[in-house]
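Lab notebook: predicted structure, single chain.

Context: the supervisor wants predicted structures on file for every construct in the current expression panel, including those that have not yet been purified. This is the next one on the list. No modifications to the sequence; it matches the entry in the shared construct table.
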Amino acid sequence: MSWPMVKLAEVCDIQMGSAPKGSSYTELSEGIPLVAGASDYGELYPLPKKATTEPTQVCQTGDLIICVRATIGDLNWADKPYCLGRGVAGLRSKAQLDSNYLFYFIRANEHVLYDNSTGSTFPQINKKTIENLLVPLPPVAIQKSIAEKLGKAEMLVKSSLQMEAELNALAKAVFLEMFGDPVCNTKKWPTKTLSQVVSVSSGGTPSKSNDSYWQGDFPWVSPKDMKIDYLSDAIDHISDLVFEETNIKKIPEGTILVVVRGMILAHSIPLAMNLCDIAINQDIKALTVCNDGIETEFLFHCLKNQKDHILSKVSTAAHGTKRLDTPDLLGLEIIVPPLDLQYKYVEIMKKNARMVERYKQSSLTNKQLFDSLMQRAFSGKLDRKKVA
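Prediction complete. Output recorded below exactly as produced.
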């Protein structure tokens, strides 16, 4: 027999937020802190920027605060009373519903909330949408057991991600220890401009009207692929016909890729190296080392360690697009330490990369297990004997 399904309104008090008067806003030390939306969220608890002396809707310690506009379903716990703005709502479990169980239930049903959202500018949900969510309701003891198991599974995911982050931080620390700040050149190494050590290749987008161009298996890299350091594939693929009939060229393995156009340049400079032959679109430049005094992977890490400096060279075109002009990119000063020191650093990074990949895979596996456990828990398919 499956667990009974009840509407959330039957087992939870739902408190929709309401914006206080603008004239009531004050410093955090003088009023009730205001959570207006996801911009006031922290990792677990809110990090509000302002308070109000005339709160409208106030949640209690232990309530869940859920986003009801834009980033629908995002959650924070109330570690103290907060004024709830119109971008959020408060969820307070009744006796029949464990609050931690509710937390994971909402996480597992964000897609349901989005599917029932309205709004052309940004999605939003109303109280009725939340009230009508159907919750599987096992006994509270089983709810607590499910929430505990999900918490432990999520902790495994976070531990893997934390170790991956620490290894990435170690890579930067080792670089600074061996070579100093590459922008200020604190160790006074010889320098060259980037134009003196690389050749530059551009890419393009095959015609979307020619289906035969998009029926191959050759990786075609665009900025959406540039989320990891080392690329071995791409989301989109093209056919060899592209290279025969257009000016788009293959980019050989071991090339440095940098995004030079797009709104992502407002806050980041995506960099990557390709581990196989690829093609690139017009928003990416490929840098091929052509100087015997520079090792490619050393240059890659050198550029990674001056991302903020490169970001300062990004400009905005007349139509608002962010761009990194080629002269500004190639004008970068690059430190040129002795090759044996560069090779030593690269060997250290290869070992580090293997460890990062191991934790990345561990994180992926744990995430898949966590998602599977969530899906089974809230579809009534979790083995009762294992959660009783």
